[in-house]
Amino acid sequence: MKAGVLFSGGKDSCYSAYLAKKQGYELACLISVFSENKESYMFHTPSIEKTKQQAQIMNIPLLIQKTKGEKEKELEDLEIAIKLAKEKYGVDTIVTGALHSVYQTSRIQKICDKLELKCFNPLWHKDEIEYLHELINNKFKVLIIGLAAYPLNQSWLGRIIDEKFIDEVQILKEKYKIHPAGEGGEFETFVLNCPLFKRELKVKSFEDISTGKNSWTREIELE
Asked: Which among 107, 152, 167, 196 is placed 20 to 30 Å from 24, CA to CA?
């Protein structure tokens, strides 16, 4: 079983890759889509170019596909990338980090069906709090690099997902209906370390950018 992983560098794609490997898949390649549209319906954008360093320390080939990020049209670019993964690396399965997004999952499934590939969603409908605890228990070091929901503010940028973080997002879930795992786009993440990495990535510098009301992005530079 050879898998191509749809890879953003965030917790969901990294943890899905980890689970796929545990279930016996060979991680043949990573597939990252670099979108010009910061509000893409399909693709994670903060610090997306840093997937190059992650792929390097995972020792897994990275396929990069650029897109303008236009709604629905960006799926054509995704299909190009998945088709290339099939042709170049012989993948028979595409792994996604989807938790609850029917919009994303249905469109990826449609592409996989067209290309006669299986689609594996190891996080699908996983309990979000249980999931966050699993990240910690499995030695995932996850950095918050994007925010887009009240009452999250700039002070949340740069936080690591730990037990204190989980306690606080549980409170926000009850009070403000925020998804604790950020599935609604409330926050974006970047993985600095996990069992798939040969070493931990270190942040050398960063720039915080306000992208709108209650919306922030941290662009990071790695050592």
From this structure: 107
